[in-house]
Amino acid sequence: MKRNFNSAVTLREKSSGRLLYSIPSLARIVYVSSYKKKPEPDRTKTSARAPSSLIEVASSIKIPTKVSQIISSIILSQNEPHSRSQFVGSDAHKTDMMVIDSIRITTTRYVFFLGVQGKEHIEDISSAIPSHNENDADTIFVSSNLLSVNGRHTSNNIQCSELTSYFKILDPLGGGSYPLDYLVIIDGNDQVRCKIPLVINNQNIFQRTLNARKDRSGISTHLTFGISLDQLAGFLEEYNQYFANHGS
């Protein structure tokens, strides 16, 4: 006997036709009983998409201890103490280059390399840095003949030369002492997570393009994929949010 499970079962009074009771179809009962409500997403957990210029850890370069110490010394040489330092060992000392061997900064560091024109825009760059700074990051300015600016972490000439040489961003037009305009982001494990040119002004791109055509040096190509000062605030916020959610 073939049964139709899609039909409801009803019982009516024979004389009057009055409905006594009705049972839903078996198919509907099975469907309803097997339905499971999808769990609500946990909105307390936020995730930030990786910035497009982010260098993944597996592909990133770990800076040498000496370079890390130079960057740390720039931060620690300020008048106020740096409460986010991690002391390693007990034989802390300073050399003439202000390299502190026993102290290492364990936060994210935004290192701005600035050329002759770039160092005139330190205040503009500083204003683009996220004020809330959830990642507790440090910002360092590296350039030649750079005076201390409103308590900012700034390099001296020796530190500038050492860092510029290591990152290979010496400006061919900078008289042999100035770096190209670059931003290097280093995480708390001393891994380089971003290295991107800074476009201080569009005229700079045009002038470098002309010079590159004249001597075929190709020096203008580094600005092709750079970020402008107008884009800097959003760029830094993107990294700030990413490191705050994923750790540095």
Question: Can you describe this structure?
Answer:
The chain is α/β, with parallel strands linked by helices and 248 residues long. The protein has one domain (57-246): Glutaredoxin (3-Layer(aba) Sandwich), CATH 3.40.30. It is built from 6 helices and 10 strands, in the order E-E-H-H-E-E-E-H-E-E-H-E-E-H-E-H. It is elongated and about 110 Å long.
The chain-level mean pLDDT equals 74
CATH class value: Alpha Beta
Q: Sketch the topology as an H/E string, one letter per element.
A: EEHHEEEHEEHEEHEH
The CATH topology name reads: Glutaredoxin
Low-confidence stretches: 29-35, 79-99, 214-220
**Discrete helix count:** 6
What is the helical fraction, as a range of percent? Answer: 25-40%
Number of strands: 10
Topology, element by element:
Elements: E1 9-12, E2 19-23, H1 26-34, H2 65-76, E3 85-87, E4 103-105, E5 109-113, H3 122-128, E6 138-142, E7 153-154, H4 157-167, E8 182-186, E9 192-199, H5 202-215, E10 227-228, H6 229-246
Helix pairs in contact: 2-4, 3-6
A few lines on this structure:
This protein is of the alpha/beta class and 248 residues long.
Structure characteristics:
248 residues; alpha/beta; Glutaredoxin; 6-stranded mixed beta sheet; two-stranded antiparallel sheet
